[in-house]
Amino acid sequence: MSQVIISADSPCDIGPELIEKYNIQIMNWRILLEGKEYIDGVEIFPEDLYKAWWERKVLPKTSSCIPVEYETFFAPLLEQGYDIVHIGLGSGLSGSYQHACTAKKKLGRVFPVDSQNLSTGFGALVVQAAELAQQDMPAAEIQTRIQDMTQRVHASFLIDTLEFMRAGGRCNTLTMLGANLFNIKPCIEVENDNGGLMHVGEKYRGKMERCLRLYVHDKFAGRTDIDLSRVFITHSGSPESDIEIVKEEISGLQSFRECHVTKTGCVISTHCGPRTLGIAFMTTSSSPKSS
């Protein structure tokens, strides 16, 4: 029986500790900035993007890999005798899942999963897949199990400033100015039944510290359907005080066995800007999202 190895697109944002623990193979996306191409998380980091915007008002472009690059990425692993379960960024956000499927048609023994999510929203699925692989589950069964789990993922994030979204064309100037004027921090919800597309949920008002406490309370208070295996706190450059507030609030509401704090890579950071903080967790069934 072939061994199974798990791979994922770099926007899974699970961090080096979990990548090493589970031997996750990462398909690094590319970042285009001022006419030069960089490898996300290897040659360029979110702080570089923020600096380019603040100093020169330049935004990067993100670029997923094309089918031939997936073939090049998968081929050495297949030659080593692995079957590959590859988990990609949601199909509503990128063509990466389809590119992996195209590579599979040529190579075989690749089992792509459409995460229907982004950042640690699909990073949670990557870790689940790795745990199943450690149990010697066949790749085809892992693929089916993980695809079924996509409806159990709950991912959202709270944005401090809409400036980067406005600059990238994802909200208009009037919306940004209104949010700044009234000190509004919008919660962005990921739709795990729509390829990972997003919508604006609750709009919190006040200082970030207060908004974070309300946000966490709304996500966890009174819920009895949460999978307590792990929770992800993922940020794009938040101060340690924000992270500690969120940890404290979560621990007062739910008893997760693992809490992972990770930082978004360039792919996510370029769209949301600094001091964005999100939570990702799973439920025990495909229950409706919390508001």
The chain-level structural class is alpha/beta
The arrangement of helices and strands along the chain is: EHEEEHEHEHEHHEHHEEHEHEHE
Q: Report the principal-axis shape.
A: globular
Which percent band covers the strand fraction?
A: 25-35%
Radius of gyration: 19 Å
Mean pLDDT: 89
- Quote the distance from N terminus to C terminus: 45 Å
Instruction: Count up the helices.
Output: 11
The total count of strands amounts to: 13
Element layout with pairings:
Layout: E1 3-9, H1 15-22, E2 25-27, E3 30-33, E4 36-39, H2 46-56, E5 61-63, H3 67-79, E6 82-88, H4 96-107, E7 110-114, H5 120-134, H6 139-149, E8 153-158, H7 163-167, H8 173-181, E9 184-190, E10 198-205, H9 208-220, E11 226-235, H10 240-253, E12 258-263, H11 266-272, E13 277-283
Parallel strand pairs: 1-2, 1-6, 6-7, 11-12
Antiparallel strand pairs: 3-4, 3-5, 8-9, 8-13, 9-10, 11-13
Helix pairs in contact: 3-4, 5-6, 9-10
List its salient traits.
13 strands; six-stranded mixed β-sheet; alpha/beta; 291 residues; 41% helix; four-stranded parallel β-sheet; 11 helices
Tell me what you see in this structure.
This protein has 291 residues and is an alpha/beta fold. The protein has eleven helices and 13 strands. A six-stranded mixed beta sheet has the order 10-9-8-13-11-12, with helices on both faces. The protein has a four-stranded parallel beta sheet with strand order 2-1-6-7, sandwiched between helices. Helix 3 crosses helix 4 (96-107) and helix 5 (120-134) runs antiparallel to helix 6. The radius of gyration is 19 Å and the shape is globular.
